[in-house]
Amino acid sequence: MKVLITGIDGYSGWPLALHLLGRGHDVVGVDNFVTRRRVKEVGSWSGTPILPFPKRQQAVHDLLRKELGFHKGDLADYEFVRGVLATERPDAIVHLAEQRSAPYSMIDVHHAVATQVDNLTGTLHLLYAMREVVPDAHLVKMGTMGEYGTPGVDIPEGFFEVEYRGRRDTLPFPRQAGSWYHWSKVFDSGDVMFATRIWKLRTTDVMQGVIYGTRTPEITHDKLLTRFDFDETWGTALNRFIVQAVLGLPLTVYGQGGQTRGFIALEDSMQSLRLAVEHPAEPGQYRVFNQFDAAYSVNQLAEATVRIAAEYRLHPTIDHPPDPRVEAEQHYYQPIHEHLPALGYRAQRTLDDGIRQIFRDVIRFRRRLEARRHVVLPTVNWRVADSKPAIAARLPSFPGPSAPPPTAASPPSSVDPTV
Ligand code: USQ
Question: Ligand 1 centre and the CA of 237: distance in Å?
Fold first, then answer.
């Protein structure tokens, strides 16, 4: 199968490319390197050293004896999107090229707008270009479990049967997202569902939980490493806790720590996306997969981190700073995930093994983490309209209050090997 991955330079896009190549698929990628620029904007970098993209391609050639196609460009440019689809004519498109950070979207009005404009524009351009050029291709769209929020009932896979005033229907499950980023994914889901209906496209909307990890089986050499973010804006809970343990910082469990989310190891996320690609939706079918392995509270993750840290002679403490987000700190959480197991999904990596793997890698790259320890603690606050002064207080180079963030459309700087 020929698979086009948008956002191939990212945390998930890169290991997905390696995984699909390893399974014998042809892979072509698209990226504009905006994540590298935005991580730099908030004063951070990848905890793992990642190569500039041409060198990544070369490493695939040298180490895996495979060719990886690539188009540098921006999904905000419709002609570019249509041109790539017309040239490559993929069987499947895995769309990962979105602004993926909730805290980044909450910095101020400019970051909120950039998140929603970039994310919705890219998806709409892909949908229109698919209709025009490859209407039989299958779109696997990266969404998020966070679209559902934390309702007091079980969370189905996208749709549920409801009875209201004596009548029954199957309807989309209500969305209650918790950041401008998560809302952009809700709006995306609506657009994908509608385009599927009117143009009879094949689509799968993946409600992805929080990913953790540094490795997949295909990452056999440091030249093949994927990025690993740990700063307050781009890092996610478990990855951040492990870095905090290595840096001798307290683990930042926000508020009461009962916030519970679906989590999945990086390699199991790749397995899930590959299963979605290899089992396409039917024409006119909009499928929703809840993609996570198990649900944990952030307290449970912090406790697991402390327990396993001792194996590396690290003894972190757990701190409970006031939650900078507006979210339930204790709540019911019972999402259903049956579609992927029905396609053969089986978790390959336990939580404890995943944590050990991350410890091993981040201890190796400790110097890179030390160099950015000042961007680990939270400053972005959901309750204030402008978190830039707080960021600028610890990061004097941060752009002033009226400066908009780098957008997907801004000219890509040369790809810097230090990001
Ligand atoms: N949290 C802490 N301490 C921290 C960081 C986070 O307690 O130092 C808490 C947050 O308050 C939240 C939970 O951990 O309750 C998850 O936060 P996160 O930063 O790990 O993840 P989130 O912002 O939800 O977003 C991440 C990815 C996003 C993806 C989403 C899946 O950045 O791209 O869509 O996970 S989900 O969470 O299921 O919506």
Answer: 6
Whether residue 327 has its Cβ less than 6 Å from ligand 1: yes
pTM for the structure as a whole: 0.97
**Whether the CB of 291 sits within 6 Å of ligand 1:** no
Q: Establish if 372 belongs to a structural domain.
A: yes
Quick check: is 102 in a domain? Answer: yes
Contact at 8 Å (CB) between 251 and 318?
yes
pLDDT in tens, 37-74: 999 999 999 999 999 999 999 999 999 999 999 999 99
- Provide the CATH number for the domain around residue 320: 3.40.50.720
Instruction: Find out whether 238 and 210 touch, Cβ atoms under 8 Å.
Output: yes
Q: What is the pLDDT of residues 329-344, one digit of tens each?
A: 999 999 999 999 999 9
Name the CA radius of gyration of the chain, rounded.
20
The closest residue, in CA terms, to atom 4 on ligand 1 is: 237
Q: Which of 236, 256, 376 for a ligand 1 pocket mutation test, highest count of atoms within 8 Å of Cβ? A: 236
Q: Which helix (H) or strand (E) holds 294?
A: strand 294-297
Domain count across the chain = 1
For the question of residue 66 being annotated catalytic, the response is no
